[in-house]
Every structure is written in structure tokens, then in C-alpha cells.
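[audit] Reproducing an earlier prediction to check determinism. Same input, same settings, fresh worker. If the C-alpha cells differ from the archived copy the diff job will pick it up downstream; this log only records the rerun itself.
[audit] input (195 residues):
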Amino acid sequence: MQFPVHTKETAPEASRATLTATEKKYGFLPNVFGVLAESPTALQAYAAINTALEQSALSPIEQQIVALTVSITNGCAYCVAAHSTVAQMVRMPEDILSALREQRQCADRKLTALRIVVLSILHHRGWVPDDDLEFFAAAGYGPRHLLDVLTIVALKTLSNYTNPIAHTPLDPQFASQAWKTTVTTEGESIDHGSR
């Protein structure tokens, strides 16, 4: 299956306004938006969640910790590179960024609690053990923060699943933060039964 990377000119009409707004916001049109543009529904959902996160109770650095943790866990090289670039733009300390990219704990207890709850959400598919929720709360986070985490998980699930399927090419703007996934699909297959 081939996925085009649309421009404003090639995208379906219903995607063009969102692509124009995205390009204006970022100064260029990231390839993930060009891929999602094939479906105005997917593109508009992705853009709307991004816009909604401007109201998040999580700081810009905390938002990138969530986005990177989800993307690394899902093995999305495109999103890890993109969010590593954004993390630098929001002045995430380099030691924290390196720890995230290498899947190590960081020295900051509060940010560690944030990372742990994200991993727990992903591992337990939302059925987060009370111990992890209590550790998160003890670090100073509340229900609003947790709902914002879940919003970012939803956002990143859309792009983390799209990019490997579509083979989204990495934008030159993110190339300095290229990352290689360790996630493979070798040996994993789905029994489709008789067709």
C-alpha cells in the first residue's frame, strides 16, 4: 500500500486549510501532516489535539517527555526525531533528553514519575496499577495532568502507528535527531485464516 506525502496542492480539498495552517504554525509542512492529509478526518483530528494541548496543565517539557516516551515505546523513529527536535526548542535539559532516548531513568524524581505513569499506561493498556498512580500523585500531579497525559498518548498513537505503515520520510528539519528503533515485526504474524 502506497501513502502519498501530500502538499497543499495535492491534498484532498478538505485537508488543505489544515495544511495551510500547519505550515504557517511550524514554518514548514512536516511530512507526517502530509501523510495524514490523505484522510481529512485523521489530519483534522491530529491538528485539533495538537491545538488543544496548548491548554495543557503539563509544561512544554513535560509534554515532550510524554510524547517521547510513547514514541520510543512504540518504536516510531519519525516521532522520536521530531519530538527530540521540539524538546530542544522548549529547552529540555540535554541529560533528560539523552536519558529518554536511551530509555533510562532521569535524575528528576517528578519527571521520572511522569515517565513511569506513561509506561504503565502503555504496558497495562490503561489499567494502571494503584502504586503507579500513587507515585504519580505523590510527585505533585493530579487528575487533570493524567487526562492530559492520556490525550498525548492518543495523539501519539495516531502518528506512531501511521508513520511505520506509511514509511513517512524524515524531514530535513528533524534529521539531526534521527533515531533508530529496536522494535521489529520479525516472527510476528497474524493468522488470517482461510480467505
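[audit] rerun output stored. Observation attached for the diff report: The chain has a mean pLDDT of 94.
[audit] end
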